[in-house]
Amino acid sequence: MESRLLPFCHFPFNTDLITGVGKSSLVHLLCQNQVLGNPSWTVGCSVDVRVHDYKEGTPEEKTYYIELWDVGGSVGSASSVKSTRAVFYNSVNGIILVHDLTNKKSSQNLYRWSLEALNRDLVPTGVLVTNGDYDREQFADNQIPLLVIGTKLDQIHEAKRHEVLTRTAFLAEDFNAEEINLDCTNPRYLAAGSSNAVKLSRFFDKVIEKRYFLREGNQIPGFSDRKRFGGGTLKSLHYD
């Protein structure tokens, strides 16, 4: 099989003074298929590598090494810190937006993080609120594959789980992305053959195809054409 190193950005989502979202634990689980025993705050950027079989089980199968960049920081960082983070956004081939399912502010901040990573940091000042008047057209021409992952699913009471997951489904739709919700302390959420594992593999395939095989403007075969962004407001964004 052919192997290639594919740079890939895993996007940061520890914000303000709120408890960590679990992105370091997530990266470790994605790359090592193991639970991270002693997670710590990310300072600067931490890099890990995942081995991914592109189009596994088909004649086109190839092995790629995908770098995951766990970028630390706060959504409210000073401009000098944000400028430093911008170094890690150059030449990214995909973005994983990670949020804490137990904290609404966590997913609200995903919007600002995504604008920063896409070099469109023009969001109005102030606190982002549910159904705030923010223009989704800013994402309409985005060519970078996005995936939304919610962590700490195990910490949501069963009685509230439906309400929370319904809200986050709108969040993923706003980003025109697929969604995975999991508990980073339990590898079974990414077990081979599970719906989450299929979504993850499909996402990495999409990133690889975008990077190596597609000319600009061509649609990726085998991927459903999800609803495009229209006018209106950005729905229910919340995150750490």
TrEMBL record:
SMART domains assigned: RAB
Annotated source species: Felis catus (Cat)
Entry superkingdom: Eukaryota
Lineage: Eukaryota, Metazoa, Chordata, Craniata, Vertebrata
InterPro entries with a match to the protein in the record: P-loop_NTPase (IPR027417)
Record-given protein name: RAB, member of RAS oncogene family like 3
Chain's gene name: RABL3
PROSITE patterns: RAB (PS51419)
Alphabetical keyword list: GTP-binding, Nucleotide-binding
Record carries keyword GTP-binding: yes
Similarity remark: Belongs to the small GTPase superfamily. Rab family.
